[in-house]
Amino acid sequence: MIVFSPGVIKLFGEHAVVYGKPAIAAAIDRGVRVKCSRSDRAVVRAGRAQVYVEYDVERREAKAIGEEGEKFLSYVLTALRIAEAELGPLKAVFELEGDFPPSVGAATSAATSVGVIRAYAACLGVGLEKEELAKLGHRVELEVQGAASPMDTAVSAIGGLLKITPSPFSYEKINPPMKELALVLLPRRGLTKDIVADVRALRSRHRSVDAVIDAIGEVVEEAWQCLKGGDLKCVGELMEVNNWLLGALGVVGDDVVALLRYLKPFIYGGKISGAGRGGVVVLLPKRGEIAEALAELGLPTYIVRIDELGARAL
Question: Keywords assigned by UniProt (predicted)?
Fold first, then answer.
């Protein structure tokens, strides 16, 4: 049994979603695949997930785990424990492979959490609704990170282009007006939890930061109307506005600004996706020549489509 769980790109609303503002995100056709095979013992292997992990769950024996591997493994083991508690015991070999390196801003931890639980259920022969899968995946992220928005796990589980309202949690889904998105991976400087903590500290020092967060929330609402109307020029312009506002929070570097300026002839707009300080920059292409322009950057790049189906057995 093989399960695919999509990665997630944030189009609007990062950081502000932590403070109750809405956000817009999309599942994409790159993510995490989890193969589950029943066995007489429980084993995790992730040699093709851009980290190397081999772990015997019962014996607690691990091989060749670096820093990224240890973080990756914490999501897998927490997902297995929660799945066992909610769905029942299972002995199986879980083999994972992924399209992105961990911690780049493409929701690899959410896709891993959701994918492992979905594969566990499939291997056990238990049905699991997408909304319930999203909740269980969010529990994994909460336990591992200490704090996490439900956005990434919901979008990975459900699929498509979604507007997320975090408190109380709800979502709205529309048909995406764009055919493709382009992604560029910049070197990452800092962990998500540390970047979120820095923004929280900035907000505690300056009341005026609330105005920036409120403005991001307003951009989300306007962008949603542009998306529903299929106005890609409007969407691109608001991506740039959102990126400027995130810059005011200290999470957008000069490398992102320079990248967007260089690619301006080929895109409606672009912005960081995720916590920032490197990682994924998402672009809304308007001309076919963008592939050539991306190739000249010398950076990891991807052309992706929005995945409408969410986490599922293949």
Answer: Kinase, Transferase
Q: Does 50 have pLDDT greater than 70?
A: no
Beta strands in the chain (DSSP E): 2-12, 23-38, 43-48, 54-56, 61-63, 92-98, 161-166, 169-174, 181-186, 267-272, 279-285, 301-304, 312-313
Same domain flag for 189 and 216:
yes
**Model pLDDT for residues 88-117, shown as the tens digit of each residue:** 999 999 999 988 877 777 788 999 999 999
Q: Which amino acid does the sequence have at 254?
A: D
- Least Cα distance to 178 among 228, 218, 216, 219 occurs for 228
* pLDDT tens, position by position, 179-190: 899 999 998 888
Identify the active-site residue in 29, 56, 99, 152: 152
pTM: 0.91
- Whole-number pLDDT of residue 54: 77
Query: What is the total count of domains within the chain?
Result: 2
**Known active-site residue 56:** no
**Domain CATH number, residue 282:** 3.30.70.890
Could you tell me the residue range of the domain that residue 283 belongs to? 181-304
- What CATH number does the domain containing 166 carry? 3.30.230.10
Model pLDDT, residue 291:
85
Q: Is 312 a domain residue?
A: no
